[in-house]
Design a protein that fits this description.
Number of strands: 11
InterPro entries: DUF7869 (IPR057191)
Helix content: 25-40%
Structural class: alpha+beta
Pfam families: DUF7869 (PF25273)
Protein name: DUF7869 domain-containing protein
Distance between the termini: 62 Å
Number of domains: 2
Number of helices: 9
Organism: Ramazzottius varieornatus (Water bear)
Strand content: 15-25%
Order of helices and strands: HHHHEEEHEHEHHEHEEEEE
Shape: globular
């Protein structure tokens, strides 16, 4: 043993630590912390000793973590099944046959990352620091079937609003999603989307109205959209954003088209779009289109799972729930001729939560 005042070499210290203190770990830095977790952890570990609510807070925290783990497990399972089914693609046409397309599901996930400024020199002169750079917004969409990422680059001069305004709003997101879906049609009749829980950007009636329109026009038969719990949204786009930021830090990039080229050549399995180079990438006012036809979806903020399908008699049906297998709300997404929506809502117990036309004993999930 080492006596007081004696020093050991670094490797010896590591060996001693590994032998006697393996149970002690250095906490890693965390990003995108969950507000619920932070609040409950503070209550459990930093509250008064005589706080009678500690046990309740601990039980609530454990239930919260279990719910987040279940959502992540379902996401990973859906991605794995999606990769397996794409082995049935025709090697020549890269499309599903009519029969296989009925059961095939296109699974995508998307998100924004932190904007960057151009020009970006690796060796920055002092005077440049005080200049205002051109803000470049980055939207990432991942096709989970082949783990291919699609980067969308837009700047203050060509984004949907003046000087970068509304660049992260529903019109921007849905316009890029619509562009991707038109570019990547492999014959699937079902669509599954994963996104974060941002209400202003993703989880709103405009998104639901757009998805209902895709079903009404015959683009898809069924559509699912799942929102991961806030603070527990680490998924495929975040991994590709990490690669992008790593490259961005290491290379000098002056112009937007240089960034597109640099990322496309250095990030494997990637495809890049710059707004100025894509004439088919059009900003659409989907918000006004949906606002004139659909009212707010009742209970949307408390739900994480949404499924839309067509009913031959009633039209497009939206079902949403907070937890798969739990109580579900059903909404009729039917646009009237006078451009005012007809929204009917009813609560369903789990025994009614089955696909239309299927036996009652089969599916009990929303």
């Amino acid at each position: 043993m080492v006596g007081p005042g004696q020093a050991v070499k670094q490797q010896n210290f590591y060996d001693i630590w590994d032998k006697y203190a393996r149970h002690i770990k250095i906490r890693r830095a965390h990003t995108d912390m969950c507000n619920v977790c932070d609040k409950l952890i503070s209550r459990i570990y930093h509250g008064p000793r005589d706080d009678t609510g500690k046990q309740a807070a601990k039980a609530q925290w454990e239930a919260h973590l279990e719910h987040a783990a279940q959502q992540r497990a379902q996401y990973r399972e859906k991605v794995l099944m999606n990769k397996l089914q794409y082995k049935n693609l025709d090697p020549e046409t890269k499309k599903f046959s009519t029969i296989d397309g009925r059961t095939a599901v296109c699974v995508v996930s998307f998100d924004f990352t932190q904007s960057v400024g151009l020009p970006h020199p690796t060796d920055q002169a002092g005077a440049i620091y005080f200049k205002s750079p051109l803000g470049v917004h980055i939207f990432g969409l991942v096709d989970e079937s082949n783990s291919r990422v699609y980067y969308f680059f837009m700047n203050e001069s060509n984004c949907i609003g003046l000087d970068g305004k509304d660049s992260h709003g529903p019109n921007s997101v849905l316009s890029m999603l619509d562009f991707f879906l038109k570019q990547s049609d492999n014959g699937e009749r079902s669509l599954c989307i994963y996104a974060d829980n941002c209400t202003g950007q993703n989880k709103n009636r405009f998104t639901m109205g757009y998805l209902a329109h895709l079903i009404k026009t015959g683009r898809y038969d069924t559509i699912e959209i799942h929102f991961l719990p806030p603070g527990h949204t680490k998924f495929s786009p975040d991994a590709f954003f990490g690669l992008l930021k790593r490259i961005f830090r290491r290379f000098s990039i002056d112009l937007p088209h240089e960034m597109k080229t640099e990322i496309a050549t250095k990030v494997a399995s990637s495809h890049t779009f710059d707004k100025d180079d894509e004439p088919e990438w059009i900003w659409k006012d989907i918000k006004t289109f949906a606002e004139d036809r659909y009212e707010s979806v009742p209970g949307i903020n408390g739900s994480y799972h949404f499924k839309l399908h067509r009913d031959e008699e009633r039209g497009v049906i939206l079902r949403h729930c907070a937890k798969e297998g739990g109580p579900t709300t059903e909404v009729l997404m039917e646009a009237a001729q006078n451009k005012t929506s007809i929204v009917r809502t009813r609560k369903l117990s789990s025994k009614f939560l089955r696909p239309v036309g299927s036996p009652q004993r089969e599916s009990k999930n929303c």
